[in-house]
Amino acid sequence: MDYIAFLEHVQAGKMLESGSEIFTYMSKISTKAQRICAEINGKYHEQNELISLLSELTGQEIDQSVSIFPPFSSDFGRNLHIDKNVFINAGVRIQDTGGVWIDEGALIGHNVVLATLNHDLEPSRRQNLIPAPIHIGKNVWIGSNATVLQGVTVGENSVVAAGAVVTKDVPANSIVGGVPAKLIKKI
């Protein structure tokens, strides 16, 4: 198993079966992500050091315009894609195994959760994981304590109200809020 094969598997939305080769590979990469996140959160770092650690976590060059306030966690790291001028506030938890794209200018509030995995509903298969990507559009603002679930795209310039649980796509230039999140108004 290698990274390309893993990405092809999750991008196709195929199940990650507990105990399989691909599940073991995911766990191995997750261990590396835990180490890097522990370094991010374990002591004070200047922003340029945090960007270097984010680059190591994602395996991609993260632009110096990105700003992050620890603590921060990512369960996989290698399927997290962060564009320029993104702000990630304290306590953000990103489950990026299924893929997370955060476009330019996005603001991610305190304690936001981005979750790209779900479990099979059948109890005998509940340990299996079902991936689906999250896409946060350009200039999106996600308020504190919001949760964005697997398979959701938040359209550009939109706002997700604090505490919202986003289970469906958010149209561009919209404000959503509530549990589950519903359209409040267009911007």
Give the helices and strands, then pairings:
Elements: H1 3-11, H2 21-42, H3 47-58, E1 67-68, E2 72-74, E3 80-82, E4 87-88, E5 92-95, E6 100-102, E7 107-108, E8 113-115, E9 117-119, E10 129-131, E11 134-136, E12 141-142, E13 147-148, E14 153-154, E15 159-160, E16 165-166, E17 174-177, E18 182-186
Parallel strand pairs: 1-4, 2-5, 3-6, 4-7, 5-8, 6-11, 7-12, 8-13, 11-14, 12-15, 13-16, 15-17
Antiparallel strand pairs: 9-10, 17-18
Helix pairs in contact: 2-3
Shape: globular
- What's the total helix number? 3
Instruction: Describe the sheet with the most strands.
Output: 7 strands, mixed
In whole angstroms, the N-to-C terminal distance is 45 Å
The arrangement of helices and strands along the chain is HHHEEEEEEEEEEEEEEEEEE
Number of strands: 18
Low-confidence residue ranges? none
Strand content: 25-35%
Walk across the major sheet and give the strand order: 1-4-7-12-15-17-18
Radius of gyration: 16 Å
How would you classify the helix and strand content by structural class? alpha/beta
Mean pLDDT reading: 97
Q: Which percent range fits the helix content?
A: 10-25%
